[in-house]
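Q: Fold this one first, please.
A: Sequence and structure below.
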Amino acid sequence: KDDPQKLFVWTYLSINCANTIVISVCYLIILARANRTARKVHGMMANGKKGQVDHKADRLQKSVSRIIVTDLLCWIPFVFICVLHSTEVMDATGLYGFFSIILLPINSIVNPIIYDDYLETQITYMIKYLRGSLTRSLSRITSRLHSQESKNSVIAAPNGLEMTE
């Protein structure tokens, strides 16, 4: 109850939360300034180039959003568990290893991947390829079912009897 490290823990958690908020706000400021610049450039460009500016602005917005989300998904659970541990709601001693060895380094690994256009391009290509393969497979299955149904369809003969093809 009178843990001498409590002040340190709460100071650390407060600084950690403040840093996460500052980083998120900075990314939002970057995004707002980039969008403002894109709109200015958009107004000065010929129609053919406007699509490129819009595409780059959209990519930047997606990247910044992903960075903010991954930062929050990695740090908020850690801070929450630390608060629960510090307030003695739960004993989270065993979870610190998971957070420090697995979860928090994932954030460091994910951010460069998010910044890299090559990986995003490859993932987009793979999704399009898989979607096309699935569409072609479903189309073949559907056409086979239709041809099977037409072979088994019943037709009426001129004499009133039913015949199958």
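Q: Good. Now the second chain.
A: Here it is, same layout.
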Amino acid sequence: MGDSIETESLTVPEPAGIATPVGLTETAKLRRERLKALRQKRQGIQGDESPADGSPEPKVAKFRSYTPRDEGLAGSLKDKAAPETVEDHINVQLQSADPTAIVEEVDLSNLAPRKPDWDLKRDISKRLAKLERRTQRAISELIRERLLVEENSSNP
């Protein structure tokens, strides 16, 4: 319980990439201001255009699939949206696509299935190369020994 957490020297990265020491409460205030600015930007309200009393503008109901009975709300009806046809978008994409380019980009080595043990071979290839060198040395030593034995036996 003797350990204490330092809250006064917390380093918070700034948007420009510069880190400055800031307290936790100051960090929270900065975050709230950034979130408020983002919210206002999303709603299309700049900092200058906000109402003087600080209260947000009342939301207006917009009806698309509901016809309100109140005559005061009847003015907030949205026009009925017509569904877009997907066929038009597909036809444009098909016409803009070049089928010959796709065929040229296909590499047959990538399409061929790999053997089930290809990853094992890849992982062991360095060790196998080292063993192959040792095997070749051992074979050459055995051949030299046989030649020496043959020379010694033929030269009494």
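Q: Anything worth noting on the second one?
A: The first strand starts at residue 10 and ends at 13.
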